[in-house]
User: What shape does this take?
Amino acid sequence: MRLTAKEMEIVEILEKDARLATDVIAKMVGLSVEETKQAIKKLEDSKVLVRYISIVDWTKVENHPGVRAMIDVKVTPKRGVGFDEIAERIYRFDEVSDVYLMSGTYDLSIIVEGKSLNEVANFVSQKLSTLDSVISTTTHFILKKYKHDGIIFENDTNKDKRIVVSP
Assistant: This one.
């Protein structure tokens, strides 16, 4: 789908802050509120705007025991469907939040969420590794998130920024 310049501006604005009011967006792009509403509806109906989400820093929530892992997967593509069929089988698991086709050593990169390291390990050994097309996996547990979708986490502006001077 080819977007107009105004539609592209609206998409870029909403990508940065989906909570902005329509009248604010209208002023930013130079359209009326009604034109802006119509443009947003068109973008939603055509699935350019798929979903509005919040980015949460779960490390600030004491009772959230979640674990995330990035898993690189080597697979054997099937004739006629390539990687699509195995990617679909993988993304249908509840534990899987993201699936990407990659270039390089591994074919797919997936993000898995679980309540514990053991839960993620069980997913890999009992569900993912047992799929016919899966040749191998490499699991990387996410220890700390510094930046996600352009948002920097734990940027302490009160930190002492003086240069350390020692004799």
Notes: DSSP finds five helices and six strands in the chain. The chain has two domains: 5-45, 60-144.
